[in-house]
């Protein structure tokens, strides 16, 4: 059985960074601060008197090229990279102060946020961690796309993508997600785009803050970034990063096996909404309860 941390966590100290929003291009300063047990992850807009927006599926607003949250008209945009890192590195409770509408993109991956968490340190609280364990398979499908989650004792994912570019094509990633495997195999993977689509996206009001320092760009004949790719299958790994960030909106650590085939933000959050609208699909359990069950189960 996979080892599951028994208690909720928060950070030891505050850390901060500055950057720009990927889509808005707006400058933003962000701080990650400790929070009491049972708080969850809560965004605070310091430019709006500290207005709070919890990182919850209940507040999902837009899911086209990023996942955005909104509460009472207050927006927090492009949350997925930060939440993916928090979730996978095992952070349960934190306040995230930002002074603009979009989380900074930094280098386009989860790696800067993982480094911030290492700097901040993490400590256990006295509250037992409650896991959301999938007990029945559940899926969401669209033409040529599919996402499913099945019962499992840990958190596993299988992510498959296809893009008609000679350096991408069909890619697949299968792995058990732990803080160690995430930091090494997923966090460094950057967001990406294709040169021929950039003008259309800018005309839609998107990627105003994108540069080759914050995203991978595939040109017709290769990668435009100096130094090339961090992984041969970097697009697939980044899609896995996005997927985890959207699943984090459940608000509890997830026990299940996720299979995503050419899925995107809209399908990810549709699956989350379907799970959370049907309590027969899951149970909420502690690590101690699962350990007791395992000990009482007859030997095979």
Characterization of this structure:
The protein has 300 residues and is of the alpha+beta class. It has 7 helices and 20 strands. A hairpin with a 2-residue loop joins strand 7 (68-71) and strand 8 (74-76). The longest helix is centred in the C-terminal third of the chain and has 14 residues, at 234-247. The radius of gyration is 19 Å and the shape is globular.
Give a quick rundown of the structure.
23% of the residues lie in helices and 35% in strands. It has 300 residues and is an alpha+beta fold.
Helix content: 10-25%
Number of strands: 20
The major β-sheet equals: 7 strands, mixed
Radius of gyration of CA atoms, rounded to a whole number: 19 Å
Mean pLDDT: 95
Low-confidence stretches: none
Secondary-structure element string: EEEEEEEEHEHEEEEEEHEHEEHEHEH
Number of helices: 7
What overall form do the CA principal axes indicate?
A: globular
**Helix- and strand-based class?**
alpha+beta
- What's the end-to-end separation, in Å? 14 Å
Give the strand content: 25-35%
Question: What are the main properties of this structure?
Answer:
single chain; 300 residues; alpha+beta; seven-stranded mixed beta sheet; five-stranded mixed beta sheet; 7 helices; 35% strand
What order do the helices and strands come in, and which of them pair?
Layout: E1 7-11, E2 15-20, E3 27-33, E4 41-45, E5 51-54, E6 60-62, E7 68-71, E8 74-76, H1 80-89, E9 94-98, H2 111-120, E10 122-128, E11 130-134, E12 138-142, E13 145-150, E14 155-163, E15 169-176, H3 179-185, E16 192-194, H4 198-203, E17 216-219, E18 222-223, H5 234-247, E19 254-261, H6 265-276, E20 282-286, H7 287-296
Parallel strand pairs: 4-9, 11-19, 14-19, 16-17
Antiparallel strand pairs: 1-10, 2-3, 3-9, 4-5, 6-7, 7-8, 11-20, 12-13, 13-19, 14-15, 17-18
Helix pairs in contact: 1-2, 1-5, 5-6
């Amino acid at each position: 059985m996979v080892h599951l941390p028994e208690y909720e966590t928060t950070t030891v100290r505050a850390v901060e960074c500055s950057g720009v929003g990927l889509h808005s291009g707006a400058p933003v300063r962000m701080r990650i601060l400790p929070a009491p047990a049972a708080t969850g992850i809560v965004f605070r807009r310091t430019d709006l008197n500290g207005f709070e927006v919890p990182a919850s599926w209940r507040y999902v607003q837009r899911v086209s090229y990023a996942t955005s949250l909104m509460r009472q008209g207050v927006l927090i945009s492009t949350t997925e990279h930060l939440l993916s890192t928090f979730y996978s590195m095992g952070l349960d409770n934190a306040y995230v102060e930002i002074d603009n509408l979009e989380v900074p993109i930094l280098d386009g991956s989860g790696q800067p946020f993982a480094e911030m968490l290492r700097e901040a340190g993490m400590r256990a609280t006295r509250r037992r961690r409650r896991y959301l364990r999938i007990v029945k398979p559940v899926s969401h499908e669209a033409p040529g796309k599919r996402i499913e989650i099945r019962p499992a004792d840990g958190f596993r994912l299988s992510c498959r993508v296809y893009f008609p570019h000679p350096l991408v094509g069909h890619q697949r990633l299968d792995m058990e997600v732990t803080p160690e495997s995430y930091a090494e195999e997923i966090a460094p993977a950057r967001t990406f785009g294709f040169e021929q689509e950039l003008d259309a996206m800018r005309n839609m009001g998107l990627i105003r803050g994108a540069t080759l320092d914050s995203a991978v760009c595939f040109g017709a004949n290769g990668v435009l970034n100096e130094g090339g790719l961090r992984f041969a299958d970097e697009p697939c790994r980044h899609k896995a990063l996005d997927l985890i960030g959207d699943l984090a909106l459940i608000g509890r650590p997830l026990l299940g096996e996720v299979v995503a085939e050419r899925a995107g933000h809209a399908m990810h959050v549709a699956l989350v909404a379907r799970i959370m609208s049907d309590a027969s699909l899951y149970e909420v359990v502690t690590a101690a309860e699962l350990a007791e069950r395992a000990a009482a189960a007859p030997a095979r």
